[in-house]
Amino acid sequence: MLPYLSGKFGNAGSRSHIWGRHAAQAVERARQQVAQLLGAGDPAREIVFTSGATESNNLAIKGLARRLGKVPGHIVTQKTEHKAVLDTCKRLENEGHRVTYLDVDGQGFVSPAAVSEAMHDDTVLVSIMLANNEVGSVQPVEEIGTLTRERGVLFHCDAVQGVGRTAFDVSVLPVDLVSVSSHKLYGPMGVGALFVRRGVGARMLAEMDGGGQERGLRSGTLNVPAIVGFGAACELLSSEADAENVRLGALRERLLGGLRESVGGLHINGTTDWSRRHPGNLNVSFDGVDGEALLVALSRSVGVSSGAACSSATMEPSYVLRAMGIDDDRAHGSVRFGIGRGNTPAEIDQAVRLVAAQVQRIRALG
Ligand SMILES: Cc1ncc(COP(=O)(O)O)c(C=O)c1O
């Protein structure tokens, strides 16, 4: 990234001079790296750079609904999507579109049959994520995509959490639009991409109008250094994914095993069919422990989070856990561990000791 912050500080849209052309070449290389990670065959036409997955989700969903929905249309999604999908859908509802928010089962999976039943003649889009950010459940994207194809409905997938961590290849999967985020795969923050299958872009309305960059779908000067870093991160992820996923799965097993040995009253939130879960995700609740209290106690030593969001005076339990039918007490006690590239077995053991000590302390207080 560094050369593009100094000596090669050209605007990729300024092709009339050498600095601009160098920047443009770097962007095109990054486009190929992103495309390769996703399996996209036509980088120049199919990869649109954005400011991140929030923007990618907005562009995909609003872009399609507003163009195709000259008469308001119908969208199918699920209750456990990220807010960048749910709130985008709510906005469209306010504009007259209809949205079906599908239930998930106790493990966080949506049923392809329910997706199929929810599609009507005016359905313009199905939006279902790849892996859930709180409980790691990997959705049956292939089955859902096959059903959308049969109905001639476009399919958007927020793949932020799953890409590189579970099989995902747009050259074989029936998906039309895919959102990815750089910082979720160790690239810089504030950059992402939307895969737009050939032919689909013409059916979309841009969110951002202006200089016509990114084939008119996303105007604005490109953030060249960030895009270069994003591309490099994608290449690294492609090369390490298989070995790293096995390593992450083993670390998760170590974490779970350690916690189970040192503290009782532990419940796993989400599936224990590990082949259908993000390998770095573990979400658990401890009986008699408030998740927030545990997070506060750990905040300087273990970087965990809960699904709870603080809204005014009340702590709202995670809407994802609620949608899975998990009761409020248990949802309040939930803690989400995300294991990643930098983590070692020694750190996992240390985390187990620290968490166990705090769980015992909090229980003793209660
Ligand atoms: C599933 C999912 N979708 C979308 C986003 C938003 O991505 P970004 O931060 O790049 O806007 C996130 C970020 O946490 C996410 O986990």
Summarize the structure.
By secondary structure, the chain is an alpha/beta fold. It has helices spanning 18-38, 43-46, 53-68, 83-94, 112-118, 141-151, 224-262, 291-298, 319-323, 328-332, 345-365, and strands spanning 47-50, 74-78, 98-102, 123-127, 154-158, 177-181, 192-196, 266-268, 281-286, 309-311, 314-316, 334-338.
CA radius of gyration is 21 Å
Q: How many β-strands, per DSSP?
A: 12
Count of alpha and pi helical runs? 11
Given helix and strand content, the structural type is alpha/beta
Bound molecules: pyridoxal-5'-phosphate
Mean pLDDT comes to 95
What does this structure look like?
Helix 1 packs parallel to helix 7 and helix 7 crosses helix 11. 47% of the residues are buried. Helices cover 41% and strands 15% of the residues. It has two domains: 235 residues, Type I PLP-dependent aspartate aminotransferase-like (Major domain) (Aspartate Aminotransferase, domain 2, 3-Layer(aba) Sandwich), CATH 3.40.640; 125 residues, Aspartate Aminotransferase, domain 1 (Alpha-Beta Complex). The model has no long low-confidence stretch (mean pLDDT 95). It is globular and about 70 Å long. The chain contains eleven helices and twelve strands. The site of pyridoxal-5'-phosphate has 12 residues, from helix 3. Pyridoxal-5'-phosphate binds next to helix 3.
Describe the structure using short key phrases.
366 residues; alpha/beta; Aspartate Aminotransferase, domain 2; Aspartate Aminotransferase, domain 1; 2 domains; three-stranded antiparallel beta sheet; 12 strands; 41% helix; binds pyridoxal-5'-phosphate
